[in-house]
Design brief:
This protein is mostly helical. The protein has two domains: 80 residues; 388 residues, no CATH class. Helix content is 66%, strand content 1%. The chain contains 22 helices and two strands. It has a two-stranded antiparallel sheet. Strand 1 and strand 2 form a beta hairpin. Helix 7 crosses helix 8.
C-alpha cells in the first residue's frame, strides 16, 4: 500500500472538487438569491483543506497498486460526499442537520435522487443548481469508474461485459490509455447533456430548468427543481424528451462511443444487453398502461399512456423522476415498478441496479440448471449472443448476487430495528441500494421524516450499490488489511 500516493490523490480530489462550488456562486449572483456566502466559505474551506492534505506528499510519484485502487475508488465517493454536504450545512435557508446534509450530498453524488428537502420551489436558485450539479458530476464519475477504473481492479459489470460478451468492448480498453478513455467518455457525456438541455428548452422549460434537469437526466439522478418533479411541467412533450434521454443514458456509454466512432447505429442493434434492456422496459410499460387503463386511474387514453411509459422508463432506468404519485397507483404496480429497479440499467451507464447484463446471465444460468435436471449428462453452455460464457464469469455473477442479497437482508433488518415499518424499510433500501430515489410508504414523497440512524444506513446502501458491492466490501474485510 502507498499511503503517500493515496494522500496526494485525496488532496487533489478535494482541491478539484472545490472548483465545483464556483458555478453556484455565479448562479447566486445572477439571480441575487442571497445564498452566495455559504458556497464561498465552502469553496475556500475545501480548497485550503485539500491543499494542506496534498502539500506534505506532493512530490510522491509512486506507482499505485491494486489495493491502492480500491481505497481511492471508495475514497472518491465518501470524501466528496462529506465535502459536498458543507454548503447545505452552512446555508440558513434550509436549516439542515449534519445527517440530512450528508444524506442529500451522498444521494446526489451517487445519483440516487433520494431527498430530505421539502419546499424545493421556494429554495434559492443556487442551492437548486448545486443539487443538480452534484448529480451531474457524480454521473460523470460513475461512467469513468464503471468503464475505465473498476475493470482494472477486476470488479464491476463492465469487467464481465468486456471480457466475455461479443461486440465492441472485447478489447481491454476503449482507447490505449485510460486518460484517452476518460476524455472520450467525457465528450459523449457532455454532448448528451447539451442536447438534452436544448431539447428541454425547445419543449417549453425555462433555461434554468432545462439545464438543471438535463444534469439529472443524463446522470440518471432524478433530482428536480420542483417538489412535483416532472409533473410540475404538466407537458407530454417534456416527458417524451425525458424518456428519450433517460433511455440513452441507461445504455452502456462504451456502446455510445463505438456507435459514434463507427458513425453507425449497428452496435446498438447487435448488442444483447441493449435488446434485453429495451424488452424489459417496454414490457413493464405495456403492463402498466393496461392495468392503469382498466382501473380508470387517469381520465383519458393519452394521459394513461404517457404516465405509464414515463414511470416505467424512469423507475426501470433508476432515474426516479415522477409525473404522478406512482406509489399510490392501484394494485401491484408500485411493487412491480420497484422490482424492475433491481434489474436497473446497462453496465457502463449512469444507471443503478444489479445491471441488465448480470440479470441476463442469471436467467440463462437458471435455465441451464433446469436443463441439467432433465438431462444430467448434457453439456449446456451459457451464451450471450453467440459467445459462450466461462464458468468463472458465471461464478462471479452468482457471487455478486449472493453478496447483494446478504447485504440487503442485513440492512433491511437494521432499518426495521430502527423503527421503520416493513414497506418503508424494504422500499427505502431498494430505492437507495439501486440508486433509484423515490420509494413507497413513508419515503414515497421524501426521506425527511425517517430517523437519523436509518438515513446513515441508507447512505451506506447508496455507496454499496454505486460501487457495485465488491469494491466497498473488499475495503471493510479484514483480509484486505493483512500484510
Amino acid at each position: 500500500m502507498q499511503p503517500g500516493a493515496i494522500q496526494r490523490i485525496l488532496g487533489l480530489l478535494m482541491m478539484i472538487f472545490s472548483i465545483s462550488l464556483l458555478p453556484p456562486v455565479f448562479v447566486s449572483w445572477l439571480y441575487n438569491d442571497g445564498a452566495m456566502h455559504p458556497f464561498l466559505w465552502a469553496f475556500f474551506g475545501i480548497l485550503i483543506s485539500g491543499f494542506f492534505v496534498w502539500l506534505p506528499v506532493y512530490k510522491v510519484r509512486r506507482e499505485l497498486r491494486l489495493r491502492d485502487g480500491f481505497i481511492i475508488v471508495v475514497m472518491f465517493w465518501t470524501v466528496l460526499g462529506l465535502s459536498g454536504s458543507i454548503p447545505f450545512l452552512l446555508n440558513n435557508s434550509i436549516h439542515m442537520s449534519v445527517t440530512d446534509a450528508v444524506f442529500e450530498s451522498v444521494s446526489a453524488l451517487t445519483t440516487t435522487g433520494a431527498t430530505v428537502i421539502v419546499g424545493l420551489d421556494n429554495l434559492p436558485k443556487s442551492i437548486l443548481f448545486y443539487r443538480q450539479q452534484l448529480q451531474w458530476m457524480g454521473g460523470m464519475g460513475i461512467i469513468v469508474l464503471a468503464v475505465a477504473v473498476l475493470p482494472m481492479l477486476g470488479v464491476g459489470g463492465m469487467q464481465l461485459y468486456r471480457a466475455e460478451t461479443p461486440g465492441p468492448m472485447k478489447d481491454s480498453k476503449l482507447t490505449p490509455r485510460i486518460t484517452e478513455t476518460a476524455k472520450a467518455l467525457w465528450y459523449i457525456y457532455l454532448g448528451l447533456t447539451v442536447a438534452c438541455a436544448l431539447a428541454y428548452w425547445a419543449a417549453g422549460m425555462t433555461g434554468f430548468d432545462a439545464i438543471a434537469h438535463s444534469f439529472s437526466t443524463i446522470a440518471i439522478g432524478g433530482f428536480s427543481t420542483h417538489d412535483a418533479s416532472m409533473g410540475y411541467f404538466n407537458s407530454a412533450l417534456i416527458e417524451a424528451v425525458a424518456v428519450v434521454f433517460m433511455l440513452l443514458a441507461g445504455i452502456n456509454f462504451a456502446l455510445h462511443f463505438t456507435a459514434w466512432r463507427s458513425n453507425s447505429p449497428k452496435p446498438y442493434f447487435n448488442d444483447p444487453e441493449v435488446k434485453t434492456y429495451l424488452l424489459i422496459l417496454s414490457s413493464v410499460a405495456v403492463i402498466s398502461f393496461v392495468y392503469l387503463y382498466f382501473m380508470h386511474t387517469f381520465d383519458s387514453f393519452g394521459s394513461t399512456l404517457h404516465h405509464a411509459i414515463f414511470q416505467a422508463v424512469s423507475i426501470g432506468t433508476t432515474t426516479g423522476f415522477t409525473t404522478a404519485d406512482y406509489y399510490a397507483w392501484p394494485g401491484f404496480l408500485p411493487v412491480m415498478l420497484l422490482f424492475v429497479s433491481f434489474i436497473g440499467a446497462c453496465a457502463g451507464s449512469t444507471g443503478g441496479g444489479i445491471k441488465v447484463i448480470r440479470f441476463l446471465l442469471l436467467v440463462k444460468q437458471g435455465k441451464r440448471e433446469i436443463g441439467r435436471l432433465i438431462h444430467p449428462n448434457a453439456q449446456i453452455p451459457v451464451k450471450i449472443g453467440n459467445k459462450v460464457m466461462g464458468e468463472q464469469i458465471i461464478e462471479s455473477v452468482w457471487g455478486f448476487f449472493s453478496l447483494y442479497v446478504a447485504s440487503f437482508s442485513i440492512m433491511l433488518l437494521i432499518l426495521i430495528a430502527t423503527g421503520l415499518n416493513q414497506v418503508t424499510a424494504f422500499s427505502a433500501l431498494a430505492a437507495c441500494m439501486n440508486n433509484l430515489g423515490p420509494g413507497l410508504g413513508d419515503v414515497g414523497a421524501h426521506y425527511g421524516n425517517i430517523n437519523d440512524t436509518a438515513k446513515w444506513v441508507l447512505c451506506f446502501a447508496m455507496l454499496l450499490g454505486r460501487l457495485e458491492i465488491f469494491t466497498l466490501l473488499v475495503i471493510i474485510s479484514p483480509a484486505f488489511w493483512r500484510r
